[in-house]
Amino acid sequence: MLRIHLRRLSTMQSVPKNTTTNYPQEFVKFLNGSHSPYHAVESMKSVLLKHGFKELDERDGWNGKVEHKGKYFVTRNSSSIIAFSVGGKWKPGNPIAITGAHTDSPTLRIKPISKKTSEKYAQIGVECYGGGIWHSWFDSDLSIAGRVFVKDRSTGDTVSKLVDLNKPLLKIPTLAIHLDRDVNQKFEFNKETQLLPIAGLAKADQTPSESKDDATFSSLQSIVERHNEDLIKLIAEELGLPSESDIEDFELILYDHAASTLGGLNDEFVFSGRLDNLTSCFTSLHALVLAADTNIEEEHGIRLMASFDHEEIGSSSAQGADSNFLPNILERLTALKADGTDESDPLSRSWLLETSAKSFFLSSDVAHAVHPNYANKHESQHKPLIGAGPVIKINANQRYMTNSAGLVLVKKLADRAKVPLQLFVVANNSPCGSTIGPILASKTGIRTLDLGNPILSMHSIRETGGSADLELQIKLFKAFFEDYSSLESKIIV
After folding, report:
1. Of 114, 370, 424, 427, which is most buried with the most CB atoms under 10 A?
2. pTM for the complete prediction?
3. How far is CA 64 from CA 61, 287, 293, 338, in A?
């Protein structure tokens, strides 16, 4: 097992707590700067760095780099992130308080070969990612964001850069009612041929003027051959590249260009895409920032938040919740030692197992708020309301991981923080979604509970959440980080 000797910090600089933070406004800023999972992680990194967290790299050894009372984060694939603070009295086998969320949302992603023309329109080939409400994407002004791999001419390396074109570029037009009189009765479409955005009017010749020297071999067509030439030019201009040929490849997604905003007569709503699940990324991030230094000298545990990519497609990837990302970080952290215990110590192998048995995982994903026009879709006694606090999600078939022991724990935390809670079970005649909770519970054996803030129109291009619910969830997560290690031994299972 990896051995890292932990040094104790003699002093710890803390960022002053800002008790007047307007979380709804901060959340809207976060959403408008996080149009892709890569941008979301970058936004979270900037907050962590501002509050004194240090970045670690999975490629490096952490020996001597992680200290008691220290604050750290690590990313994988630039689309998943784990951040944590180490208690002043941490030792292997002690508990870790963990929150989990995901950075991805249902969207349309540009295909590897996307150049299309039809009826003198330039079009962009897209692929459905996740289970979106795809009819909501019609007639929206769409833009493009993601990451681009480019040649660094000074070093010869290939590096990734974030790009957000942030202007209305694409449109998936609906068919006029005059040509489809039944559209208001049943809106059906072919996702391959009719969920296809237009990008402009096709030019007479879109063939790139590239040299076809027989001596030059390329295993794939170039970027400008596979994609719309004007789109490639826009990306190159946005990144300040000398030439479009400097672009090696990219992963780009479409998003609703209409800005995220507060709405409702009293700003009680947040209108935006990606509330599922940047809501929980935002609340867990700010809760950890607030709790990271609180009584950290006496803390026996570790306070940790994780946000994973690819939840919407099952989490089975190198950076998803079903990967080894969190287990690997837990293994590294449970190897942190304050003394020089010999590596041959046979008891060292149980540290991770002991920590897992004592830890708790709050799996946080948004919940279904009751819909005023479809209230009969909800179980009659379980109708979560926007603005009424976090929703504890329960399912007898273990689609959610909540059990009574976990519920007792969260209720104690919520009572301390004065945060109202709601309960949700799906009606017996309705399907039930799932979360990263069951995945990580089965992978790690850590006790888990599922909860989240209620929203409407989940998986639409434009969802609706509650502005007041943001601070309530932050307060609950803050109490979890600060109080879990003292509470966990008092709930006997």
Report:
1. 424
2. 0.93
3. 9, 27, 20, 11
